[in-house]
Design brief:
The chain is of the alpha/beta class and 752 residues long. It has 3 domains: 356 residues, Glycoside hydrolase, family 3, N-terminal domain (TIM Barrel); 191 residues, 3-Layer(aba) Sandwich (Rossmann fold); 118 residues, Immunoglobulin-like. Helices cover 29% and strands 18% of the residues. It contains 23 helices and 27 strands. The strands form 7 sheets. A 6-stranded mixed beta sheet has the order 12-17-16-15-13-14, sandwiched between helices. A 5-stranded parallel beta sheet has the order 5-4-3-2-11. A 5-stranded mixed beta sheet has the order 19-27-26-21-22. Strand 16, helix 21 and strand 17 form a beta-alpha-beta unit. Helix 2 crosses helix 14, helix 6 packs parallel to helix 7 and helix 18 crosses helix 22. The protein starts with a strand and ends with a strand. The structure holds beta-D-glucopyranose (BGC).
Amino acid sequence: MIVLRNSVWNAQPNQLLKTSIVDKSVENLLALMTTTEKVGQLNLYNGTWDFTGPVPQDNSTQERADNIKKGLVGGMLNVLTVDAIREAQEMAVEESRLGIPMIFGYDVVHGYKTMMPIPLAQTASWDSDVAYETNRIAAIEAASSGLNWAFAPMIDVSRDGRWGRIMEGGGEDPYLTSVMAVAWIRGFQQDDLSDPLTMAACAKHFAAYGFAEAGRDYNTTDVSDQTLFNIVLPPFKAAVEAGVVSVMNGFNDLNGVPVTADGRLQRDILKGDWGFEGFVVSDFNSVGELVTHGFVKDEKAAARAAFMAGSDMEMDSRQYERHLNALVDEGAIDMAMLDDAVRRILKVKFELGLFEDPYRYCNKERATSNVLTADHLAAARDAARKTMVLLKNDNDLLPIAKDVASIAVIGQLAAHKDIPLGSWRAQAPANSAVSVLEGIREVATGEVTYTEGYRLVEEKRHFIHEVPFSEQNRNGFSDAIQIARQAEVVVMVIGEDCFQSGEGRSQVDTQLKGNQVELLAEIVKVNPNVIVVLMNGRPVVIPDVVNIVPAVLESWFGGSASGNAIADVLFGDYNPSGKLPVSFPYHTGQEPLYYNHKNGGRPVTNDFDAGKVFWSHYTDAPNEPLFPFGFGLSYSIFSYNDLTLSSHQLRSGEELKASVNVTNKSNMNGEEVVQLYIRDLYGSTTRPVKELKAFEKVMIRAGETRTITFKISTDDLAYYWPDGRYCAEEGDFHIFIGGNSRDVLQAEFELL
Ligand code: BGC
């Protein structure tokens, strides 16, 4: 056994931020504050009213404004526009006794006005530059609009395509999510939070929110320590190491304790063992919901439980505001702990430069000149094309020649200018995406015909997140079949409405809705050259699509420039390089489905193998996914050869090198994501059949062979034991290298 780190979960509770690391100004200010003012800093109000319009007469609004003026509010969310933010800030700064500025937060999940691809798509790029650049631009736009705190990135690992919020994170793997998390945070925060074009990031949701039982959002989570420490927590640890200044907890209860009131998570691990110096914010009303969970008797107890557990700032349920003063007076909350929470929040406000100039983010000129710029849209296009995953391309149907005589474009999603913006689209103007049809028309020189064919959703939404499914009529079928019959090539766009995924958007069946696949089956009868472009926010069930068409391109929800980016790939101006960050199942019933599963005692190596009844399998579907994690084709053909290890033995503290030759056998330059997995063959606890440990995205020219070398250290082989130690164990390991998690070369070594 090689112990690499001390226990993570036996750290002392109630670890408080050491004053020595806090700026002196924070201490000076803290010394001036009354208990009521301190509690005020912990309140985060939802800004649902319009400050700049006629002052609403609603009592609660008036009361909230009065509280801001009394210095009883630390920050606000959902206050939009420079004018509204300035007006709110003026109330806090000009009218309160100490003039402490507020922090302004918003869900800047994948862009502010210029929409970038959804985070799951960004992860499909396997390119941290994409994550960094998209959030750098999102920060410029949001900070120029007065905001200084992004409620992102969401780095909840999720293995379940039914869970609608899977679109918002980095998919099923802890290592890949960690790589993206670091880049997302750096993109927001850069090296200087006080720069008016950067903003504070918030890693969320701490923790295990992505493990909602049965994929149903907000549902309970029951996760072993082994899974918690090895799968769920690594991205958060990476986020803390990258300097994230805030962390949001979540709605779920974890192993019987709602995470908002989980002191082990927030105090022992996050603030204790990891030394997190920023602040923790609760999720929307999650403090109040502690009562509904059945975790505490009443709201006062909820306030105390959340606070004691390390939730510093409280999002909108106003339980801190109502009860913390009394709890401090009664001695139920220690003043030192209150000071610690306030100190953490003030520190971030100082770092944001808000004490120097509380209006530094409020600049009307920047608010118009820094959004939706040509540069930002070009970056959105570049990001989107890097996120696309080519799932099938028989007979090199793709790329399409630009001068092909005729293309039939079919599908409601093909002409849609709103759905590609995705869920969590912040302030993107409605219908501002480039549609696939527009993208194709800009490039193709031949005839391009279009018809809707199927209708997935009615256009009219009564509220923003509604999914108004259309009735299942076949009125558009005959026109679609007609134009398909006459065209040389058909591009049919199918998938999901953007609000089928996202918060509160879980689905029990992840097959494509409506009669889009039924129409597709009719189209392929009249034209064999059908290219399917998928738009969706989760791994969808598509064997009935893949089996009947020669080419399938996964485009996710690609954001503002989606249609151009799709055309770039369809016509070969960009050679696809994306790889799946999630496994695509044959059947929803396989979920949760993930590549880094355990072997079990009765594994099946060959699905449906006759006679294998008493083995771990389904009798009506394979165990394996339709498309495995890490899968994605290119217009280039890559072959992997000669996996060699520098040694077949590794001693603690030493490194082992694994090299592989990757050849581009095509006549097209292309990028490939070379992936390295390990398997620890036996251990104190059972280990996954594969674990991603490294990857490299490399350009390989036509005909070229490149040798890719990875270094493996003992640290890469370690994992958290049930007793909290982080150890690598002596024994036998496999190394796998390949272009996805399934098709790999294998070598062996021993850890001594
Ligand atoms: C979500 C958070 C989000 C917050 C504020 C909650 O419902 O879970 O992720 O940041 O709302 O909009």
